Amino acid sequence: MNQLASGDPHFDSLYPALKLGRRGFIVTALGAGFALATQPVVAQTAIKTDTAGLVAGEVKVPVADGEMVAYRAQPAQGSKFPVVLVVSEIFGVHEYIADVCRRLAKLGYLAIAPELFARYGDPRKLTNIQDILSGIITKVPDAGVMADLDACVAWAGKVGAGDTARVGITGFCWGGRIAWLYAAHNPGLKAAVAWYGKIDSPATELTPKHPIDLASQIKPPVLGLYGGKDQGIPQDDVDAMRDALKKAGSPSEIHVFPEAPHAFHADYRPTYRKAEAEDGWARLQAWFKAKGL
Predict the structure, then answer these.
(1) Are 69 and 115 in contact (CB under 8 A)?
(2) 56 in helix, strand or coil?
(3) Helix (H) or strand (E) holding 167
């Protein structure tokens, strides 16, 4: 893979926030545990998936400006595993996201969760959500994220024994929005599952389009999972997205759990809703299998 450097026009178009600033990665290792901003963790509901029968842990993925750290889990035996990209919430790749990767690996997937914020800061070490949003998230360009996810697919095929003809994506909150965007970006994607990803928001230089703007361009089938009591995502937006997908003749679907809040799948947080989370996870599995993953 050709390595690009700051000053190269293509690099600058992907990572505009870095043009006049630092180069390289702030986050070069993942560590362990849950993000500090999510403390205290609700230990009695947090799911813990072991690594028996798996190859799991930190890997380095070659990207435009170096190596990006990621968490990978896959079966210990076999090859040509279908690949699932796992995209985190604003808290980065912490224990919850790693566990989701292990859950997918137990189902036979090569699951990889890249630390997409690695150039901009480490959200796992910040205690205040507003500091994460203003200090890190607002600096992350959608175009760079799409390129990093493409790099993960390439890595899975070359190094991780993944089948790049069978690629899916799932993401949570911030990552749910990214799942919609990646489906528009990569028409070869087999399927996507977006958990309570924001559908609409004001455009910025780094986030110029949102899922509602791209509905007609989304060719792969996306399953959107939303909470009816999500205070951050208006049901009007969910309805508008459903209508836009229908108008475009999209194979995508949206399911709303009427009583669920935002982050209902996050088993380590008070927002967790066991019934809805398990139902959503079953829907994810059925969706992936039905779409050839």
Answers:
(1) yes
(2) strand
(3) strand 162-172
Domain that holds residue 84: 9-290
Backbone torsions φ then ψ of 87, nearest 5 degrees: -115, 130
Residue 3 maps to a domain: no
Tell me the β-bridge partners of 75.
Answer: 54
- E strand map for 31-109: 54-63, 66-75, 81-87
Side by side, which strands form the sheet with 253-257? 54-63, 66-75, 110-114, 81-87, 162-172, 191-195, 222-227, 253-257
Which residues of the chain are modeled with pLDDT < 50?
1-7, 20-22
> Looking at residue 39, what DSSP letter applies?
P
Instruction: Please state, in angstroms and rounded to a whole number, the distance separating the CA atoms of residues 197 and 173.
Output: 5
Looking up residue 160, the CATH number of its domain turns out to be: 3.40.50.1820
d(CA 277, CA 59): 28
pLDDT digits (tens, 9 = 90+) for 51-68: 999 999 999 999 988 999
Positions annotated as catalytic residues are: 173, 230, 262
On whether the pTM is more than 0.85, the answer is yes
